[in-house]
């Protein structure tokens, strides 16, 4: 299987298209699912998702791997669980918990190997943010980029081509994603709405679910003032290309073209 | 003088760069300024601006033309005032008052002739919205376009190339402007922030003031779903080009290129 990432924008319904896609992308009925609750502050994180996946037909109960400390991220037993997985789901919470616990550990090395070997990685909210090499740790709302609007830190490193943001249109996060892209135009910004997934595989991004996936492309950026700003100042920029995909729409990264999903027309 | 429009995004300070630009663009010291309070519900609308312009050096007191009804928009005396003006300032308030009072009247015909003859037209907030042939009457906030997010009605008709929006980043109005542009890709969207002006003359747009001027260019739009939506549904679209100008930045409409204003570097 080709490496596949599934970034979910938070607030995933357990009875909808996003969960069904997660199920299918992680191996379906015979999938070997692992749930990483690391980002969450709740002791029961992942239990509802595990039950919902089983109700779709998943035969083996997902393993909720209790990694909450750097010590736990050394355990050989847990590394073997990662190595055996066909799909890994990262719970939401705070993405800095994920990186603070996992950075530099044998478990993260196992995660990165598993991804290269074809294990699907899905994350919701904080779990989506953390998938990439550079992640948005936190930031402020607003449609326009400003100095200080976003804090970046290294993420789990599964891709260095894109950067994900989540709760995207619900929390008006376009400004911070444009800021990142104007600063680092080689990164493709992907803003994922709630109860929606961006599925990234084989150079394509597909939107699944109720909301939108916004693509922020800085490859044609001709100029920006991000390097010259002081606190809270608005960043000027020239030429960011935007696309918004809804359920079934696909963006092709190499050609930078989108194919929108439309109502199927009857033959005329 | 070439026809000049100055769209101000509301909340104009009376001691800043936007008022000074208005003063200069309307003829400076010897300008013959007219203020149209029509959009406002306040009896004293325009008086503060008039005083502030005089404090900059304007010699003749601006004429505040009391046009509040369609009957008043027939008066020959007022038409002569318009014909004699070098600059006309439209107060804020509700842009639908402007069109409801002026549409189809001899006064509006005089306004359109005056613009063609080189009189500068400036408007703030509602007065900015109303400058174009098609104007945004009202709408909803949000960074993403949705069905029903915006209501368009005909404006005062001074340009059919662009459409202005105001209070732009302050009220998160990118979604509604993208909606307009995906629906009518030949219109260039210009979103103006508070206490900021977009000066449109000779095919160029210059930003003046404290905030930003956002350019929403749909000329490369390849597809959108705006025609297929139902109530509140998100609009998918492919390729909107965005630029954000700050004070001194210029966008050239024919070439679709922006030149950002930067800190002047010392010669090396």
Question: Which structural traits does this protein have?
Answer:
16 strands, alpha/beta, homodimer, nine-stranded mixed β-sheet, 23% helix, 268 residues, five-stranded mixed β-sheet, 7 helices, Rossmann fold
- Quaternary organization: homodimer
> In total, how many domains does the architecture of chain A comprise?
1
Helix content of chain A: 10-25%
Q: What's the total helix number of chain A?
A: 7
Overall form of chain A: globular
Element-by-element helix/strand order of chain A: EHEHEHEHHEHEEEHEEEEEEEE
Describe this structure in words.
2 copies of one chain form a homodimer. The mean pLDDT of chain A is 96. Chain A is built from 7 helices and 16 strands. Chain A is of the alpha/beta class and 268 residues long. The first copy, chain A, has a 9-stranded mixed sheet with strand order 3-2-4-5-1-10-11-15-16. A 5-stranded mixed sheet of chain A has the order 8-9-12-14-13. A two-stranded antiparallel ribbon of chain A has the order 6-7. In chain A, a hairpin with a 4-residue loop joins strand 15 and strand 16 (257-259). The A-B interface holds A 142-145, 169, 172, 174-175, 178, 193, 211-212, 214, 220, 222-225, 228, 234-246, 249, 257-263 and B 142-145, 169, 172, 174-175, 178, 193, 211-212, 214, 220, 222-225, 228, 234-246, 249, 257-263.
Q: Nutshell version of this structure?
A:
The structure is a homodimer of 268-residue chains. Chain A is an alpha/beta fold. Chain A has helices spanning 17-25, 47-56, 76-84, 95-102, 106-116, 126-129, 174-183, and strands at residues 4-8, 33-36, 63-64, 87-90, 120-124, 134-139, 150-154, 162-166, 188-192, 196-201, 204-209, 213-217, 223-224, 237-245, 250-252, 257-259.
């Amino acid at each position: 299987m080709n490496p596949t990432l599934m970034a979910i924008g938070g607030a995933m319904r357990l009875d909808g298209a996003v969960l069904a896609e997660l199920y299918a992308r992680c191996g379906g009925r015979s999938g070997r699912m692992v749930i990483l609750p690391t980002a969450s502050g709740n002791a029961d994180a992942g239990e509802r998702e595990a039950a919902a996946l089983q109700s779709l037909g998943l035969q083996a109960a997902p393993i909720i791997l209790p990694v909450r400390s750097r010590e736990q991220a050394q355990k050989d037993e847990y590394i073997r669980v990662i190595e055996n997985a066909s799909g890994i789901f990262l719970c939401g919470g705070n993405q800095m918990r994920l990186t603070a616990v996992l950075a530099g550990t044998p478990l993260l090395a196992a995660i990165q190997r598993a991804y290269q070997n074809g294990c699907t990685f899905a994350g919701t909210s904080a779990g989506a943010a953390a998938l990439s090499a550079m992640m948005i740790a936190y930031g402020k709302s607003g449609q326009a980029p400003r100095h200080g609007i976003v804090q970046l830190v290294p993420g789990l490193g599964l891709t260095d081509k894109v950067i994900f943001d989540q709760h995207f249109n619900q929390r008006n996060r376009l400004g911070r994603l444009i800021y990142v892209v104007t600063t680092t135009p080689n990164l493709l910004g992907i803003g994922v709405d709630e109860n929606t997934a961006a599925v990234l595989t084989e150079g394509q991004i597909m939107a699944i679910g109720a909301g939108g996936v916004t693509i922020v492309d800085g490859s044609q950026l001709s100029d920006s003032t991000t390097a010259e700003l002081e606190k809270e100042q608005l960043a000027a920029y020239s030429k960011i290309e935007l696309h918004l995909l809804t359920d079934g729409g696909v963006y092709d990264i190499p050609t930078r073209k989108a194919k929108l999903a439309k109502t199927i027309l009857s033959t005329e």
